């Protein structure tokens, strides 16, 4: 016995989501069917609205309803600083700290040949454009220390070196409040590599 | 270090087996195809998270079964520890990947790395001659596995390097198919070159360091076995292109072809060993630039530690080409004994020694040398089909188990150099 076609199609749609297996997809589809028509309508409208209204800021590529986005148009922001991140979630994380007052540039991914992503698929050209046009003093790379993250950093630093701009990368180390003893050895090794004189 | 007990469930031809071991010598005797090597393999899997016998983990699960479990309790540095590895076939048919779980002292580990350096074993098998006769990958795995047991974090460098090679190969393939290579492509490739050089240099440096450490020890054994006549040498073969200046830009079309004919350049252990990792990385980077068109033409990364090799020589003659069978056996034994010695030093206690079918192949001199290594309070597990070829010393004090169709029978205490049963005969 198989699920009736419309239900099977719904399950399939959910299963396309990252991290969703067949079991969870079924659960979601059944939940969807248990909702009232109004609730389902609200859900569908929300999806359509988000898809329609959310787009990349034409300056920093952050996802936003406004273009330019709230950060790019904020007069209190320090326009001499650009923090380069892989995606909008990293912007949110950095904003949560409340510590960073500069602008952002979202690359919309990292270099990964296996996923068919090279510099041309990222917003690299636009980053170069901003550095050329605006009075930028420092580029901060807030990019994960993964194989793809490191490759992207190497690519960007090679590209930006001739521009003669200050480039920094955020430090990676031990989580605050964590115990050295329980730290994972790779994290510890990284922290040792990135040690600083005091 | 010694194993207290091994518990197997649906591993190879074992359904359910508990084996309790004592420190000292254990002999597993049985006819062919009964499960002797399988038991040693289980210990190896508990030690390294993989088997050297198969590249396909599914082979380890008993046929018709869905899940296998290996649990080993052992003593290390005076403390009781346990490691466990289980493999289960996926329930849903789609993503046909085995589910692997690893536990150390009851704590789940998210990577094989958690296992490394815990239960440490050294195994001698009839396959060891591949150190000379096998392909380069055999020698690379040998050396990498030793380093992983001494410095588990090396495993991380290895897998990072492997990921870089996979990404880079994909890029080379894309560029090959694209045909025209832009400045952006060049720059992207350069970023991957730097990644390759960075992790590659780490790996090369670690391998060189290991060779430097192991060589003098192996040399001592070889001198002993050869009556002080044979000097041993091991060189790291750095798979590199001809030095710069050899190619003329006008020959660009031929360069892909001539690059294939380039002889690997052998760099002596001492030269590379003196260089800082950053220098090794920059050597790699320069060579990668020279190889670029050949690499795109072949759609793969042609140089780096994943293509390096080690050559062994006796009195300056390459052993794989010139050493006699006996010399080859001695050389391999010397290196395996050196591996044992080195790991004992690194761990501050001897690892567990596994001897799979090797004793019968060794003559008395070599057995004697092995024996003298084993004497120093070392748990040794020996498999054999016959006891008759053994030096009596091996049998003294040994516990003997009979392996029969995936079942291990209670041991028979050795008395006066012979088992108290009727095993001999
Ligand atoms: N996944 C598996 N499930 C069930 N049986 C298996 C599996 N893998 C291997 N075997 C069986 O295990 C046997 C081999 O066992 P093993 O290699 O331990 O033999 P052995 O006792 O070492 O023999 P020899 O003296 O010839 O080396 C083979 O006969 C094979 O049929
Ligand atoms: Mg066997
Ligand atoms: Zn913006």
What does this structure look like?
- The complex is a heterodimer of chains A (198) and B (425).
- With 198 residues, chain A is of the alpha/beta class.
- Chain A has helices at 5-15, 22-34, 37-53, 70-73, 88-97, 124-133, 147-160, 185-193, and strands at 55-56, 63-64, 78-85, 102-106, 138-141, 166-169.
- Chain A folds into two domains: 9-38, Helicase, Ruva Protein, domain 3, CATH 1.10.8.420; 63-171, Dna Topoisomerase Vi A Subunit, Chain: A, domain 2 (3-Layer(aba) Sandwich), CATH 3.40.1360.10.
- Chain A contains eight helices and six strands, in the order αααββαβαβαβαβα.
- Chain B is 43% helix and 24% strand.
- Chain B has twelve helices and 17 strands.
- Chain B has a seven-stranded mixed sheet, sandwiched between helices.
- In chain B, helix 4 crosses helix 5 (183-225), helix 5 crosses helix 8 (277-298) and helix 6 (252-261) crosses helix 8 (277-298).
- Chain B is globular.
- Chains A and B meet through helix 7 and helix 8 of A and helix 4 and helix 5 of B.
- The structure holds adenosine-5'-triphosphate, magnesium ion and zinc ion.
- Adenosine-5'-triphosphate binds at residues 12-13, 30, 32-38, 59, 61-63, 357, 385, 403 of chain B.
- Residues 12-13, 30, 32-38, 59, 61-63, 357, 385, 403 of chain B line the site of adenosine-5'-triphosphate.
Could you give the topology of this structure?
The complex is a heterodimer of chains A (198) and B (425).
Chain A: H1 5-15, H2 22-34, H3 37-53, E1 55-56, E2 63-64, H4 70-73, E3 78-85, H5 88-97, E4 102-106, H6 124-133, E5 138-141, H7 147-160, E6 166-169, H8 185-193
Parallel strand pairs in A: 3-4, 3-5, 5-6
Antiparallel strand pairs in A: 1-2
Helix pairs in contact in A: 1-2
Chain B: E1 2-11, E2 14-20, E3 25-29, H1 36-48, E4 67-76, E5 79-88, E6 99-104, E7 107-109, E8 121-125, H2 130-133, H3 136-150, H4 154-178, H5 183-225, E9 232-238, H6 252-261, E10 265-267, H7 269-274, H8 277-298, E11 309-314, E12 317-318, H9 319-322, H10 325-347, E13 352-356, H11 364-375, E14 380-384, H12 392-395, E15 399-404, E16 407-415, E17 418-419
Bound molecules: adenosine-5'-triphosphate, magnesium ion (MG) and zinc ion (ZN).
């Amino acid at each position: 016995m198989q699920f009736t076609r419309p239900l099977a199609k719904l399950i399939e749609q959910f299963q396309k989501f990252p991290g969703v297996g067949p079991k969870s997809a079924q659960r979601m589809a059944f939940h969807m069917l248990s909702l009232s028509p109004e609730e389902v309508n609200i859900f569908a409208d929300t999806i359509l609205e988000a898809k329609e209204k959310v787009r990349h800021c034409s300056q920093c590529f952050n996802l936003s309803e406004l273009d330019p986005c709230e950060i790019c148009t904020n007069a209190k922001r320090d326009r001499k600083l650009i923090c380069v991140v892989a995606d909008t979630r990293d912007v949110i994380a950095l904003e949560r700290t409340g510590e960073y007052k500069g602008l952002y540039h979202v690359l919309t991914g990292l270099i990964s040949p296996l996923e068919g992503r090279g510099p041309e698929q990222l917003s690299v050209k636009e980053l170069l454009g901003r550095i050329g046009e605006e009075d930028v003093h420092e580029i901060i790379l807030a990019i994960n220390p993964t194989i793809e993250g490191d490759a992207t950093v190497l690519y960007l630093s090679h590209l930006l070196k001739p521009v003669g701009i200050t480039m920094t990368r955020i430090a990676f180390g031990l989580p605050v409040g964590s115990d050295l003893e329980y730290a994972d050895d790779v994290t510890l090794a990284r922290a040792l590599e990135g040690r600083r004189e005091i | 270090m010694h194993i207290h007990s091994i518990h197997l469930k649906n591993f190879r031809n074992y359904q359910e087996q508990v084996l309790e071991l004592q420190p000292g010598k254990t002999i597993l005797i049985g006819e062919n195809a009964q499960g002797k090597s399988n038991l040693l393999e289980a210990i190896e899997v508990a030690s390294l998270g993989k088997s050297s016998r198969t590249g396909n983990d599914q082979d380890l699960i008993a046929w018709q079964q869905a899940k296998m479990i290996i649990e080993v309790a052992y003593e290390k540095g005076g403390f009781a520890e346990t490691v466990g590895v289980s493999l289960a076939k996926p329930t849903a048919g789609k993503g046909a990947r085995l589910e692997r779980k690893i536990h150390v002292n009851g704590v789940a580990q998210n990577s094989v790395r958690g296992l490394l350096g815990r239960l440490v074993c050294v195994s001698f098998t009839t396959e060891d001659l591949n150190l000379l006769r096998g392909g380069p990958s055999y020698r690379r795995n040998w050396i990498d596995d030793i380093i992983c047991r001494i410095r588990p974090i090396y495993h991380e460098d290895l897998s990072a390097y492997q990921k870089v090679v996979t990404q880079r190969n994909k890029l080379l393939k894309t560029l090959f198919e694209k045909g025209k290579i832009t400045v952006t492509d060049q720059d992207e490739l350069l970023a991957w070159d730097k990644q390759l050089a960075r992790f590659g240099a780490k790996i090369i440096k670690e391998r060189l360091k290991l060779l430097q450490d192991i060589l003098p020890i192996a040399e001592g054994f070889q001198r002993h076995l050869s009556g002080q006549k044979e000097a041993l040498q091991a060189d790291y073969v750095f798979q590199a292109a001809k030095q710069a200046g050899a190619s003329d830009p006008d020959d660009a079309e031929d360069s892909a072809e001539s690059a294939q004919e380039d002889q690997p350049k052998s760099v002596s252990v001492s030269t590379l060993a003196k260089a800082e990792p950053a220098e090794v990385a920059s050597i790699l980077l320069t060579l990668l630039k020279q190889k670029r068109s050949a690499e795109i033409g072949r759609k793969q990364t042609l140089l780096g530690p994943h293509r390096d090799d080690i050559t062994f020589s006796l009195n300056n003659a390459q052993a794989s080409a010139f050493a006699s069978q006996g010399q080859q056996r001695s050389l391999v034994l010397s290196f395996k004994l050196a591996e044992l010695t080195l790991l004992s030093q690194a761990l501050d206690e001897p690892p567990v020694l596994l001897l799979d079918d090797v004793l019968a192949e060794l003559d008395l001199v070599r057995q004697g040398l092995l024996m003298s290594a084993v004497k120093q309070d070392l748990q040794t597990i020996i498999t054999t089909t016959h006891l008759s070829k053994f030096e009596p010393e091996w049998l003294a004090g040994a516990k003997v188990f009979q392996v029969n169709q995936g079942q291990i029978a209670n041991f028979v205490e050795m008395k006066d150099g012979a088992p108290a049963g009727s095993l001999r005969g």
